[in-house]
Amino acid sequence: MITPGFLYITGAILLLLPVNDRIKYIISFLITAGALIVTFYLIPGYSFQLDFLKFTLVPVKVDNASKLTGLIFAVGGLAAVIYSIKLCSRFILSLIFVFIGSALTVVFSGDLFTLYVFWELMTISSSFIIIMASDVTKKTGYYYCLMQVAGGLSVLWGTFLQYSATGNLSLNAIEAGIPFFMLAVAIKLAFVGFHTWLPLAYSKAPFYVTVVLSIYTTKVGVYIMSILLSGINILAYAGLISALFGMVMALRQNHALKLLSYSIIIQVGYMIIGISIGTEKGIAGAIFHLVNHILYKTVLFMAVGVVIYTTGKDTLENLGIMGRKIPVTSIATLVAFLGIAGVPFFNGYMSKSLIKEAVQEPLLTWGLNLMSFGTSLIFLKFIYYAFFKNSNVNLTKKPAISMQLGLGFLTVLMLLIGIHPYLLENLMNTDLGIHYFDKKHMLSGIQPFLWSIPVFLLLKKYVVKNYVRLLYFDMYRKMAKILVTTGYQLSNYHDGKLHKYLLWATSTLIILLVLLMF
Amino acid sequence: MELAYVVVIILLSLGMYTIITKKNLIKIVMGFTILESSLILLLILVSYKPGGAAPILDKPYEIVVDPIPQALALTAIVIGASVTAVMLAVVIKIYKRYGTLNVDELRKLRG
Amino acid sequence: MEAAVWLIILPLLTAFFIGISKLYFKKILAPLVTGSAIIYLYLLILVINHSYPPKVYNVGAWGLMGINLMVDPFSAMFLLMIAILFLPVIIFSVKYIKSHKHKYFIFTYLMTAGIAGMVLTADLFNLYVFLEVSSLSSCALVALKNTNKGIEGTFKYLIMSTLGSFFILLATILTYSLTGTLNMAEISLEFKDIPFQIKSTLMSFFVFGYVIKIGLIPLHAWIPDTYEDSPIPYNVLSSGLVMKSAVYALIKVLYIIFGIDFLDQSGMLHIGVFWGVITFIVAHLLAYQQSNLSRLLAYSSVAQIAYITIGLFVGTEGGLIAGNFHILNHAIMKGTLFLVTAIFYYSLSAVKIEDIKGLGYKFPILSFIFVVASLAIVGLPPFNGFISKWLIVEAAIESGFVYAGFFILVGTFLSLTYYLKVIVTLYTKTEKELLIVKPTLSLRLPTIFLGSLCILFGIVPSIPLSLINKIPKFLLDNGEYIRILLGG
C-alpha cells in the first residue's frame, strides 16, 4: 500500500542517488504531487496492520481529521519543495523529504510505536537540516535537537506507561501517561516556557529551511494534541497565557523571522484553546485553524524569504522592498495579512469564528478577542514597514520563478478557502451547522481588526520602534551548565592514580559482600 | 590443618595490602605474586587428605589425595608466572619511558 | 562433529603459523590471516547452525571427567558476534596496522581463541584459563603501539584485570572445595545443599571478579585508559568481544550455577539493576567531558554495558532477550564507530574531537555511517539500538524496575548530548588545510558492512532475534541445561 509518507521517504532515497539537477526537479515534483494525489484519494476508515516484534502496529489509519491534516501537509510539502528546490542542495532536499514524509506518517499513524518512531525521525531529520544547512546554525541545531529529543523521549515514556498499564499501543492517553504526553506536546508546540527553541531555530536557519520547518513542527504537535489530549479544559487558559506571551514578544521584535516565529506561538494558542474545549466544533475549529495557519504563515515566511533572498537581510526595514519591486510577493503578503488578522472573506476568519463559537466562557472569549487584536497589531506593524514606510533598500537579485510559484499556489488556496469556507468542512465530511457570513460572526470577527487600526495609529511611536534585544533567562542552559559542572567534577576524580582506582575496587568488594551476605 | 588456612588468609591479606599501599611498581608486582601463591596453597589444601598418598596409582592405596586440584595448581602456577612476566615486562618499559618506578607518577591518562 | 573444538584450535594454530611465517615467509601474512579468518567464519556458521537443541562435545572421550564443550543458543549468540566482527576487523587491520604487524595478528588470534573457549566451555576452571588467555593477549595488544600512554594504560589494565582474575580463581577454588567438581551442571546440582551465606559470599567474589572485567562504575577506570592509545581495530574487538565475554561468563555463572531463584533471594538482581543505573548516568556525564574521541567512545561503552547489565539482571525472559540483543547491537554499533575513528586516524591522525572538524564533507559516506551508528547507540529510531533499548525498558518496567526504565530514557538524552557534539563537529567547516591519506577499499568495506548492519537490524530485528529468543529457555531454567550437559 502506498502511503504519502512512504512516497516521500522513497523520494528521499532516490534523491540520495547521484542525479543531475533536471532529474532532481522531476523526482521532487513527481513525489510531492503524487503524495498530494494519494492523500486526496485516501478513504477515511482505511487502516493497515503490520506485525513487528510482538506488537501489531497500525502504520496507516485514516479518519476525517487526519485526512484533512494530511492534505494540508501534502499541499504545504508541494509548495515548500517547489519554493526551495533551487536553493538547497540535493542532500538537504533529501532530508527535507524524510522530514515531510515522517510528518505525514505521524499524522496517519494508528499506534504509539509508529507515532514515536516517526516523531523522532522528524526530529532527527529536521535537526540535521538545521545543522547542515549553514555554517552559523551548528549550535542552534544542537539546541534544537536536544529540546526535541527531550520531547520525543517523554512521548516514549508515556508510551511505555501506557503499554505496561493496558498492554496495547492504541492511540489514547491514560491517566499516568498524560503529564508526559503534555510535556512532549508542549515542547513541540513551543508553549511558553518550552518555546526557547522556536525563535532561535527559525530565525537562525536559512529561510527555506524555516519555511519547511514552520509548516510541520508545531502543527504535528497540534494534531497529536487533538488526538491524545483533547478536552482538558484547564489547558485552554494555558494556551491563552502562551498566546499573550507570544504577542508581547512578537511586538518587540525587529527581525521579520523572529516576529513570525513568535506569532506562531499566538496562532498555536488558538488551536490549543480549540482542542481544550473538546467539543466537536472546538476540535474542528482547531484543525481548520491549523490548515489556515499553515497556509498564511507559510506564505508569510516565504515572502520574508523572498525579501531575504533579494536584499540579503530580514530586518523589518528591508521589508520595504515589497511595496515597490516584487509584486507577486506583495499581493501574497497582503492576502496572508488579511487572513491572519481574521478579516471576513479571508481564510483565517472562518476558523477563528469557529473557535470563538465553541468557546463558552467569557474570559476565554475576551482572551480570543485580545489575541485577534494583538495579531492584527503585530501584522499592521509588519505591513507598515512593508508598504507605508519609506525605504531605500535595493534589489540585489530577482526572486526565482520557483519561489514565486510556491508562493502563488498557496495564495490561491487561501483565497479559495476564504471565499468558500465550507470547502474544509466538505473535505472533513462534517457539517458543523455554522453560517460563517451572518451578521453576528462578521461583526465579532471584524471588530478586533478595526480596533487595532486606530490603536496602531495612536500608539505608532511605541509599536514602530527599535526595541533593545532582551537578554532573556534560559532555564535549560542553566540546567545544562549544572550537569556539565557535575561531569567536570566527576572527571576530576579520575586523576590517573592507580591506587585510587584500586581503593575504589576494594571498597566495592566490601560493599558487595556486605550487601549480599546480609 | 586450620593453621594452613590461616596462612592462606594471611598471605592473601598481605598481598592485597602490598598492592593497595605500596608505591613502587616492583612491589605491586610482588604483591600479585604473593596473592598468587596464597591461591596455590589453597588449591593444595583443598586436595589434601591426612595420610593420603600421591595420586600416582602404581599400586592400590587406601587414601589418595584428590589429583584434580594439583593439576589446577600447575595451571595456576603457569598462568601466574606468565602474568608476572608480562607485568615485569611492562614495568621495564615504564621505567625506560618515565624514568621512575613510582606509581603516582604514571598519571598521563586522566579525565 | 568436531567443528566446535576447531573453533578453539584454529586460531591457536593460526597464531602459531603467523609466528613461523614471520621467520621464514614474510609475504604470506595477509593471505594467511584472511584465509584463516574466512575458514573460521565458515566454522562459526556451521556451529551456530547446530546450536539448537544444545550440543555437548566431550574432548578426549573422558566423559564428565574430561573437558566438555557445550554450544547452546547463548554461546551461539556470542559466536555470531565473533562471526560478524572478526573477519571485518582482520581485513581492516591488514591495511591499517603498520608496525608490529605479526605480533598484532598473533595476539588477536590468541585473544579470539580465548574468547571462543570461554564461550564454549562448560567447565569452571577452563573458563578461568580461557579468560586469562584472552585478557593477557588483550593486554599485550594495548601495549602494541609502544607509546607512553599506551604502556601506562597497559599497566593499569593489567593490574585491574589480574585483580579480577584473582578473585575469579579464588571463587572457582572455593567452589571446587565445596562441591568437588568443576563441571557447571554438577556444581549446580551440588549447590542446592550449600548454606545461603556461603553461597552469597562465593557469588560476591564471582561478581566482583567479572565486574572488574566488565567495568561497571567504580571499577571502570581502566577502560578509557586502555582505549586511549591502543590500536583502534583492537578496540573494536575489545569493546565488542573481550568485555562481552566477561558478561557472558558472569551471566553463565550466575544463572546456571546459582540459578535465578537464588539471585532473586539474595537481592543480586536488585543490586545489578541499581548498579547499572548508577553506572550509565555517571559514564554519560564523564563521556561529555572527554576531548579524545577514543576515550569518549570508551566511556560510552561503559554506559552501554550498564544497559546490558540492566537487561540481564532484570531476571525475566524479556530482560534476557533484550540484554542479549543489546550485546549484539552494541558490538556492531561500537565496532562501526571505532572503525570510522580508525579511518580518521589513518587518514590524518585525528585523535581529538576537534581534529575531525570538517571531515563530514571530505568523507561523506563514512561520516554518514558514523552518524547512523551514533544515533543507533544513542537509541533513536529506526536503528538497531532503539529496538534493543525499547526491549530493555519494556522488560524493566514489566518486572517492577520502573525507575530503571525511566533513567534509561534520561540516559538516552545524556548520551545524545555528547554524540551530537561530535557529529556537529564533524559537519563544521574548517579553514585548515587537511592533508588526507585516502582510505583504501579494504578499510572502507568492513566499516560500511558493519554500518549497514545497524540499519538492517533496526528495520528487520527478527533476523537476530530468531536466535536470541531461544536463549532464556536455558538460562532461566537451569534444570534444562543441566539435563542436557549431564545427559550428553
From TrEMBL, chain A:
<feature type="transmembrane region" description="Helical">
    <location>
        <begin position="68"/>
        <end position="85"/>
    </location>
</feature>
<dbReference type="InterPro" id="IPR052175">
    <property type="entry name" value="ComplexI-like_HydComp"/>
</dbReference>
<feature type="transmembrane region" description="Helical">
    <location>
        <begin position="92"/>
        <end position="110"/>
    </location>
</feature>
<feature type="transmembrane region" description="Helical">
    <location>
        <begin position="400"/>
        <end position="422"/>
    </location>
</feature>
<feature type="transmembrane region" description="Helical">
    <location>
        <begin position="207"/>
        <end position="228"/>
    </location>
</feature>
<feature type="domain" description="NADH:quinone oxidoreductase/Mrp antiporter transmembrane">
    <location>
        <begin position="109"/>
        <end position="373"/>
    </location>
</feature>
<feature type="transmembrane region" description="Helical">
    <location>
        <begin position="180"/>
        <end position="200"/>
    </location>
</feature>
<dbReference type="InterPro" id="IPR001750">
    <property type="entry name" value="ND/Mrp_TM"/>
</dbReference>
<keyword id="KW-1133">Transmembrane helix</keyword>
<feature type="transmembrane region" description="Helical">
    <location>
        <begin position="234"/>
        <end position="252"/>
    </location>
</feature>
<feature type="transmembrane region" description="Helical">
    <location>
        <begin position="283"/>
        <end position="308"/>
    </location>
</feature>
<feature type="transmembrane region" description="Helical">
    <location>
        <begin position="442"/>
        <end position="459"/>
    </location>
</feature>
<feature type="transmembrane region" description="Helical">
    <location>
        <begin position="259"/>
        <end position="277"/>
    </location>
</feature>
<protein>
    <submittedName>
        <fullName>Multicomponent Na+:H+ antiporter subunit D</fullName>
    </submittedName>
</protein>
<feature type="transmembrane region" description="Helical">
    <location>
        <begin position="116"/>
        <end position="134"/>
    </location>
</feature>
Automatic annotation (TrEMBL), chain B:
<dbReference type="Pfam" id="PF00420">
    <property type="entry name" value="Oxidored_q2"/>
</dbReference>
<keyword id="KW-0812">Transmembrane</keyword>
<keyword id="KW-1133">Transmembrane helix</keyword>
<feature type="transmembrane region" description="Helical">
    <location>
        <begin position="68"/>
        <end position="92"/>
    </location>
</feature>
<comment type="similarity">
    <text>Belongs to the CPA3 antiporters (TC 2.A.63) subunit C family.</text>
</comment>
<dbReference type="InterPro" id="IPR039428">
    <property type="entry name" value="NUOK/Mnh_C1-like"/>
</dbReference>
<feature type="transmembrane region" description="Helical">
    <location>
        <begin position="28"/>
        <end position="48"/>
    </location>
</feature>
<protein>
    <submittedName>
        <fullName>Multicomponent Na+:H+ antiporter subunit C</fullName>
    </submittedName>
</protein>
<keyword id="KW-1003">Cell membrane</keyword>
<feature type="transmembrane region" description="Helical">
    <location>
        <begin position="6"/>
        <end position="21"/>
    </location>
</feature>
<keyword id="KW-0472">Membrane</keyword>
<dbReference type="InterPro" id="IPR050601">
    <property type="entry name" value="CPA3_antiporter_subunitC"/>
</dbReference>
TrEMBL record, chain C:
<protein>
    <submittedName>
        <fullName>Proton-translocating NADH-quinone oxidoreductase chain N</fullName>
    </submittedName>
</protein>
<feature type="transmembrane region" description="Helical">
    <location>
        <begin position="234"/>
        <end position="257"/>
    </location>
</feature>
<keyword id="KW-0472">Membrane</keyword>
<dbReference type="InterPro" id="IPR050586">
    <property type="entry name" value="CPA3_Na-H_Antiporter_D"/>
</dbReference>
<dbReference type="InterPro" id="IPR003918">
    <property type="entry name" value="NADH_UbQ_OxRdtase"/>
</dbReference>
<feature type="transmembrane region" description="Helical">
    <location>
        <begin position="32"/>
        <end position="53"/>
    </location>
</feature>
<feature type="transmembrane region" description="Helical">
    <location>
        <begin position="104"/>
        <end position="121"/>
    </location>
</feature>
<keyword id="KW-0812">Transmembrane</keyword>
<keyword id="KW-0050">Antiport</keyword>
<feature type="transmembrane region" description="Helical">
    <location>
        <begin position="73"/>
        <end position="92"/>
    </location>
</feature>
<comment type="similarity">
    <text>Belongs to the CPA3 antiporters (TC 2.A.63) subunit D family.</text>
</comment>
<feature type="transmembrane region" description="Helical">
    <location>
        <begin position="441"/>
        <end position="460"/>
    </location>
</feature>
<keyword id="KW-0813">Transport</keyword>
<feature type="transmembrane region" description="Helical">
    <location>
        <begin position="327"/>
        <end position="348"/>
    </location>
</feature>
<keyword id="KW-1133">Transmembrane helix</keyword>
